[in-house]
From TrEMBL:
The HTH hxlR-type domain, residue ranges: 16-112
Pfam families assigned to the protein according to its UniProt record, in alphabetical order: HxlR (PF01638)
Statement: the UniProt record of this protein carries the keyword Cytoplasm: no
Name by which UniProt lists this protein: Helix-turn-helix domain-containing protein
Entry keyword set: DNA-binding, Transcription, Transcription regulation
Originating species: Nicoliella lavandulae
Source species, domain of life: Bacteria
Entries under SUPFAM superfamilies matching the protein: Winged helix' DNA-binding domain
């Protein structure tokens, strides 16, 4: 028989800072959709990402793309003699594909 605890369980998040960092990135609103869009479509211009994730304001989308760039998940590519800017997943971002596939599988099983 399991022992009853007097205090509620409080996990020590300092034990796994990498896990905590991962979920702070993936759990932030719009990041999953940005990553999923770039996984499915490949490199895209800002306006194409914005059109795909229409409910996300441009201001927030810019902010999220910058954060994902700082985290090494998204790369911002500029072209010489052009105003063209393209966003694409880095190798680190591409490595999220099996995780995103697993999330889709879990969601398909447990949500209507």
């Amino acid at each position: 028989m399991d022992e009853v605890r007097d205090k509620p369980y409080t996990p020590d998040f300092h034990l796994c800072p990498k896990f905590q960092k991962t979920f702070s990135i993936l759990g932030k609103k719009w990041n999953g959709l940005i990553i999923e869009t770039l996984l499915n479509e490949g490199p895209l211009r800002f306006k194409n990402i914005s059109n795909t994730i229409a409910k996300c304001s441009d201001r927030v989308l810019v902010e999220r793309l910058k954060e994902l760039e700082v985290d090494g998940i998204v790369a911002r590519k500029t072209f010489p003699d052009s105003s063209l800017i393209q966003y694409q997943l880095t190798e680190k971002g591409q490595a999220l594909k099996p995780i995103m596939d697993s999330v889709h599988g879990w969601a398909d099983k447990w949500f209507d």
